[in-house]
Amino acid sequence: MKASETDNRVFENNFLEKFSKTNAYFVIIAYLIISAGLLVYFSLKTDISIALQITIFFSGLIFFSFIEYIVHRYLFHSDKSSDKGNFSYRLHHIHHDHPRDKKRLALPLPVGLILASVLYFLFWLLMGDYTPFFFPGFIIGYALYLLIHYLIHTKRPPNNIFQLLWRNHNIHHFKDDSKAYGVTSPFWDLIFKTNP
To answer: What is the pLDDT of residues 118-136, one digit of tens each?
Structure first.
């Protein structure tokens, strides 16, 4: 194997390494289908008004943007060490070392589905019957995050308002990783004063 191929390994075990990579578009489409299915199924089975369903859905979407910021800032950047065996490196810092690796721009679907199931259960404990509307908003927020993140790392910035997302994320990657934790929005960076 070439040195560049071994530099971006997460696991020594070839089987685990193979499943640490994924196609981001496949994952995004899967989450969109799952979320749409949940929304349609539960909206036909509930007495909750359409207006409240929409409000709960958008609450999930906004909540995801907050969680995106918090997880990126406090979990993904919790350990600055370059030790390739540590949790933070395997979870996120490998992406900083290899930002153009298309196969590491999304969490593999099996791992993501396990995590999503745990989150659904936790949301159900907190929200009960509102969960089938909140959770799809949250998951669609995640799918949008994956899409935007993938596009930032693989395409040129557009000549419109979204160019700000490219600029901020490139600052985070290549100039100052203590700034611009929000990928889908600069809102939480402005609130918590981490905007570049």
So the answer is: 999 999 999 999 999 999 9
Tokens for 83? 């030790």
Q: Sort 100 into a burial class: Cβ within 10 Å, 0-12 / 13-18 / 19+.
A: exposed
Q: Are 184 and 141 in contact (CB under 8 A)?
A: yes
**pTM for the whole thing?**
0.85
The DSSP annotation for the chain comes to --HHHHHT-S-SSHHHHHTT---HHHHHHHHHHHHHHHHHHHHHS--S-HHHHHHHHHHHHHHHHHHHHHIIIIIITS-----TTSHHIIIIIHHHHSTT-GGGSS--HHHHHHHHHHHHHHHHHHHGGGHHHHHHHHHHHHHHHHHHHHHHHHSPPPSSTTHHHHHHHHHHHHT-TTS---SS-SHHHHHTT---
Rg (CA), the chain: 18
The arithmetic mean of pLDDT across residues 178-188, rounded, is 93
CB-based contact 143:31 (threshold 8 Å) = yes
Q: Any idea which residue has 């981490």 for tokens?
A: 194
| Tally of CA atoms within 13 A in the half-sphere of 56 that contains its CB | 20
Residue 158's contacts (CB-CB under 8 Å, 6 or more residues apart) are 166
